[in-house]
Amino acid sequence: MKNEKESATRSDFIRDIIKEDIKKNKNDGRVITRFPPEPNGYLHIGHAKAICLNFGAAKEFGGHCNLRFDDSNPIKEKEEYVESIKKDIRWLGYNWGDRECFASDYFEQLYEWAVQLIKDGKAYIDDLSAEEIREYRGTLTAPGKESPYRNRSVKENFDLFERMKTGEFPDGARVLRAKIDMASPNINMRDPVMYRILHKPHHRQGDKWCIYPTYDFTHGQSDSKEGVTHSLCSIEFEDHRPLYDWFLEKLHVYHPQQIEFARLNLSYTVLSKRKLMQLVSGGDVSGWDDPRMPTLSGLRRSGYTPESIRAFCERIGVAKRDSVVDIALLEYCVREDLNKRAPRVMAVLHPLRVVIDNYPEDQVEDLDAINNPEDPDMGIRKVPFSRVLYIERDDFREEPPKKFYRLAPGREVRMRYAYFITCVDVVKDEKTGKVVELHCTYDPATRGGNAPDGRKVKSTLHWVSAAQAIEAEVRLYDRLFVKPNPLEGKEDFKTYLNPKSLETLTSCRVEPSLKGARQGNRYQFERLGYFCVDSIDSTDEKLVFNRTVSLRDQWAKIEKSMKAGNG
Ligand code: ATP
Ligand code: MG
User: Model's pTM, two decimal places?
Assistant: First the structure.
C-alpha cells in the first residue's frame, strides 16, 4: 500500500472537497465512502479507478469505505459475481473490514419508504405498459405526457401496491412511479419508475419478493442508510442527482453529498460489463479472466500486478471530464513495476538449433547469470551451457540486411553470460530450403562474454542449452481490438476484434531454472518481454506462460513525441 508521505501529496478536486469538509467539521469530520458494484459481471479496469478513489480517499482521510453490492435487479445478478468482485478488490490491495453491505438487505426499508411516498401522495401505481411509459415520457425537446392513472387516490395506490407485493399481478402489469413532473427538462424527473413486478428469485432474498426497487430508487437511499458522507459517482449519474435529492428530501432522511467524476475509457478495448459479457458468451474470449480482457481477473492472469494498476489509477488522476486514456500508459505502468521485481530468465520462443562444433561433446558448464540488474539483492543463478543450443530464429539471417547486427554466416556475436560464437555453416532442409541448424565455433577465451583482446561484437543473443531446456507453451497476447475506439464505427464492435490477439507457440524452450515455476510467477524473458505462468493451464508437466507485455515501450515514445510537439 501507499505510504503516508505519498498519500499526503495526492490531490484532485474530490480530495479538495473532502479536505474542505473536514476543515468545516461537516459530518463531524467523518469520511465514509462506498464502492457500489452491481454483481452482474466481473470488475474491469474502470472499476479499479473507482475502487482506488473510494478506498484510497477514505483511507487517506482516516475514514471508511463500504463495499456495497447494488443488487436490486435479480435478473442478471449472481453469487459468482459477488465472489469475484470481493476477490478482485482484495487482490487490488483494499479491505472493507466488516463493512460488506447489500442493497437487498434494505428491501424492507425501501418498501416502507415507498409506502411513505404513496401515503404522502408522491407516488402512484401506473397501469401503462413499459412501451406506453416510454412513449409518454417525451424527449429531450418535447415534454412528457401525464399517465391517465397518475391521479389515483392514495387509498387505491396503497391497495394496488400491497397486491403487487403479494404477487397478484404478472410481470409488467403495473409499476410504482414517483409523482414529480412530466414536463421537467430533466427526463429522469418525469415520474421515474420506483418499483416493478418481477417474479424472479433473488440471489440473496430467495423468493421473498416479487417486486423489486429500481436502481434509481435504491442507490441514493442505500447511501443515506449507510451514512455515506461522500457519494462518489461516475459522471453518468450527474443527471440522476436531482432525482436522488428529491427522494431524500421527500423522505426526510440523511442526505449524503454526491460528487461526480469522469469514467475511465481506455483505447483498444471496451469498458462495459454488458459488452464484455457479449465477448464471453459469444466465445470471442475464453472467459471473464481471459488475459486479453480489461477485467481485473484478466489483467491478473496476464501478469499485471496490483501495484501497477494502482500506479496507473494514480497517474490518470481524477477529473470531471471524460477522456480516453491510451492503453500504452497501462502497459507502461506494468512494465515499470515488473522491471523492478521480475527475475530475468532466458527463453527461446522460436527455437533454431545451434551446434558449437569445437565445444566438447559431453561438457556442460554452469555459468553465472544475473537475476535482475535493477536489483542486486536478487542475486545470481546458474545457467547451463553446452554444445547444442537453441537461439531465436529471428536472431539469424542468412543474408543480413543493413543494420541487422545479429548472427549471420561468418559473423561473431556474444551469447549472453557465455561466449562469443561465430557462425561457420548453415544447414537447410533439402525440400523446403528452410534453415534447420547452424554450426558455429566458440572462443574459449571469451568466457563470461568478454574478449581479453578487447575485440567487440555488435550484438548479444539469448539462448538455452538444448539438453537441459524445458519445453513450454507460450501465449502471445495482443490488444483485443484493432481500432482505438471499437464503439465508434458503424459496425458492431465485434467487427473490430483483433484476429491476431492470441498466438499460441507450443514448442518454446525455457532455461531449466524455471522447472517448477508456480502459477502466477512473473518473469522477464530477456529481450522479449514480461511473462507470467498461467494460473489455470500451467502444470509441472507442461509450463504455460502468458505474455503480459512486450519490452517495447510505446508510451515512452508517445511522451517523447508529445514533448517534441509542444516544443
Ligand atoms: P458497466 O458500464 O461496466 O456495466 P457500471 O457502472 O454499470 O459499469 P457498476 O457495477 O454499477 O458498473 O459500477 C460500480 C461503480 O464503478 C460505480 O460507482 C461506477 O460509477 C464505477 N465505474 C464503472 N465503470 C467505471 C469506469 N469506466 N470508470 C470509472 N468508474 C467506473
Ligand atoms: Mg452502473
Answer: 0.94
